[in-house]
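Why should sequence recovery work at all? Because a backbone constrains its sequence more than one might expect. Tight turns favour small or flexible residues, buried strands favour hydrophobic ones, and helices have their own preferences. The token representation captures these environments compactly. In the example below, the structure is given first.
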């Protein structure tokens, strides 16, 4: 096992890519003792395993904790465990199939397309203010408020309550890091309790007075006599907020940092805004906002001659897969016009990101507005990385316009 893979080291978090190169060269699967996970660094394996039904985000549809050789989560984590366990991301068939079908009825391509003008308007307002102030922290001024406002708009969260959403989300997402501390768990439990109570009230209001928001759509969505339970609705709304902005926020700031470090590519993009759609895809590939995605092994699998036994957890290294030279030509080169770019930043298989089309609209809107209105935007100081490795992003990104 390579010592260079060290997810708690600030140096590794700042640049994990050399370690990934070493991992890929050393083999297809590596056991990592500190987290008791099998690391999977190659594109073909990550892509294949995302679609392999012998793996699951949960194992509880087939085994008890004991049968699977694990202990149940502590009772003290209860509100978080329920909230997270009933969301689409952590379920498998048949529940996943049913819930995803019902959510898809409310979250249609048409719904997303209908949001596009709102996304563009919000992006324009945020960027106008940012430019008028001469710049500042791009993360808190543009990257963060845009997707949070869009999800809030979708869910029908009143403007006065929107400031609550991001802190709740940040606290809950702390639990997705490797080996979270007890303090992190307490914050996540508290946020889960408050966020769930808030949504329960919002759902009750929408039952009485439906609107054209997503919550009203989720209440109305049903097949024959199958509906979403209240808990499933709450978990879905929380997932849409968490998944719906964390990756977009980090792609925005990590992406701009990448552009500032590649001035010739930035100059090409500034000269030709027609590059924007392939540029967004390349930034998603080049520095993935979600570096690792975990799955449980439900039946023994073999990877490159190594048997990974049932009960194991695999860590699919998205950041490594997206830089695999077996799939991408010159993977460590940023090429904003890259024509063939099947990155797996949004996942694959049954858990493919439901919000990918919305994320793309948001990214195109915010990058587009900044390119138009801040054509000379530059880095004011080199940013620092958050300590988290799984959801990887900057603490802030201070720029001058």
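From this structural description, the recovered sequence reads:
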């Amino acid at each position: 096992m390579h010592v260079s893979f060290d997810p708690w080291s600030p140096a590794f978090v700042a640049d994990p890519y050399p370690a990934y190169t070493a991992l890929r060269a050393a083999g297809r699967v590596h056991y990592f003792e500190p987290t008791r996970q099998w690391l999977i660094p190659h594109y073909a394996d990550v892509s294949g395993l995302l679609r392999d039904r012998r793996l699951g985000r949960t194992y509880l549809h087939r085994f008890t904790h004991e049968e699977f050789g694990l202990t149940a989560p502590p009772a003290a984590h209860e509100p978080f465990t329920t909230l997270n366990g009933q969301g689409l991301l952590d379920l498998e068939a048949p529940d996943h199939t049913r819930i995803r079908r019902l959510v898809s009825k409310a979250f249609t391509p048409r719904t997303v397309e209908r949001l596009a003008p709102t996304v563009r308007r919000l992006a324009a307002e945020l960027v106008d203010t940012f430019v008028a102030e001469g710049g500042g922290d791009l993360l808190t001024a543009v990257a963060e408020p845009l997707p949070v406002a869009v999800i809030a708009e979708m869910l029908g969260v009143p403007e006065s309550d929107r400031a609550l959403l991001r802190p709740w989300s940040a606290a809950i997402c702390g639990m997705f890091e490797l080996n979270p501390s007890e303090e992190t768990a307490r914050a996540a439990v508290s946020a889960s309790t408050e966020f769930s109570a808030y949504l329960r009230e919002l759902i009750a209001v929408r039952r009485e007075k439906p609107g054209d928001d997503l919550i009203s759509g989720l209440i109305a969505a049903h097949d024959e006599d199958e509906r979403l339970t209240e808990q499933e609705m709450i978990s879905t709304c929380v997932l849409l907020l968490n998944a719906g902005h964390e990756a977009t926020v980090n792609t925005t700031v990590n992406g701009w940092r990448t552009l500032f470090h590649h001035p010739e590519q930035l100059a090409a993009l500034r000269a030709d805004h027609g590059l924007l759609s392939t540029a967004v895809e390349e930034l998603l590939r080049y520095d993935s906002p979600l570096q690792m995605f975990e799955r449980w092994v439900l039946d023994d699998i073999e990877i490159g001659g190594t048997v990974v036994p049932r009960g194991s957890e695999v860590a699919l290294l998205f950041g490594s897969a997206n830089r695999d030279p077996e799939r991408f030509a010159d993977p460590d080169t940023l090429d904003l016009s890259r024509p063939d770019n099947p990155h797996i930043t949004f996942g694959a298989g049954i858990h493919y990101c439901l919000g990918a089309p919305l994320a793309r609209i948001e990214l195109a809107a915010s990058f587009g507005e900044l390119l138009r209105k801040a054509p000379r935007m530059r880095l004011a100081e080199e940013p620092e990385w958050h300590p988290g490795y799984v959801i990887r992003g900057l603490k802030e990104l201070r720029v001058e316009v």
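A few observations help interpret the result. The CA atoms of residues 292 and 313 lie 12 Å apart.
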